[in-house]
Amino acid sequence: MDELLVDRRDDGVAVLTLNRPDRRNAMTDGMTTRWRLAIADLAADRDLRCVVVTGAGNAFSSGGDLSWLAERAAEGVPALRDRMLGFYRTWLAIADLEVPTIAAVNGAAVGAGLCLALACDLVYAAEEAKLLVPFTSLGLHPGMAATYLLSRVAGVGVAREMLLTGRTLTGAEAAPAGLVTRAFPRESLMDEVMGIASRTAANAPVATRLTKIALAGGGHADLDAALRWESLAQPVTMISADMLEGLAAQRERRLPRFGNA
């Protein structure tokens, strides 16, 4: 079984599907290796416009494969630290892609699985999907940047409640809490997400990539930092072929046909 499916669409959208439904898409060593290669391939693709991540079956991802934990205690902290840091950086490399990334949380997103979703630019969840980070109930400190990602996305209050008490949120509860962008009925989730991905992919690639950079890490530190960035980034797009095409399309009342970034 291919543990990661990669579907490249003609509109510039790539869909990555975690494909171990029998294990609720746990992040095995094999899947981690496939993910590393796939992300490297996508990063080098100039035709790429948007990436969607989802899970096969009824789960998004149950997180890291914990079957090896009981056998690893004898390795010692340095070896475990190196192993975990490599695991974290491999999966969170999706945040380094220059194009917009979208998580379609079709079912349970647990621990590292939820963190993978939160590392994407946009997160859409099935209304009944369960989102949780049960590290401390397993005797573990949170990993996969959970202490950063939950606080950044939903605020420290939500992060504290989920990480300290183990509270589980459904997709419907997570949307008003700010943990996910929006929630949809499960049966319409992928249609909604693919429509959003297609519209995103149709936008001007240079402007889109620069905008993603501007919003990275929660946006600029202050108003002046935003103005200094925009006074440089906007002129870059003003002299691009994309802007000329966008204006021509508006004038001619047609859809724009943007080139590659």
What keywords describe this structure?
2-enoyl-CoA Hydratase, Chain A, domain 1; four-stranded mixed β-sheet; 11 helices; 47% helix
What is the CATH T-level topology of the largest domain?
2-enoyl-CoA Hydratase, Chain A, domain 1
CATH class of the largest domain: Alpha Beta
Strand content: 15-25%
Average pLDDT works out at 94
Low-confidence stretches: none
How do the strands of the widest beta sheet line up side by side?
1-2-3-5-7-10
Please write the string of helix (H) and strand (E) elements. EEHEEHHEEHEEHHEHEHHHH
CATH superfamily assignment of the largest domain?
Answer: 2-enoyl-CoA Hydratase, Chain A, domain 1
Number of separate structural domains: 2
Distance between the termini: 35 Å
**Rg of Cα set:** 19 Å
| Main sheet properties | 6 strands, mixed
Pfam families: ECH_1 (PF00378)
Protein name: Enoyl-CoA hydratase/isomerase family protein
Family: Belongs to the enoyl-CoA hydratase/isomerase family.
Keywords: Lyase
Question: What does it look like?
Answer:
With 261 residues, the protein is an alpha/beta fold. It has two domains: 4-201, 2-enoyl-CoA Hydratase, Chain A, domain 1 (Alpha-Beta Complex), CATH 3.90.226; 205-252. The chain has eleven helices and ten strands. Strands 1-2-3-5-7-10 form a six-stranded mixed sheet, with helices on both faces. The protein has a four-stranded mixed sheet with strand order 4-6-8-9. β1 and β2 (13-18) form a beta hairpin. It starts with a strand and ends in a 9-residue tail after the last helix.
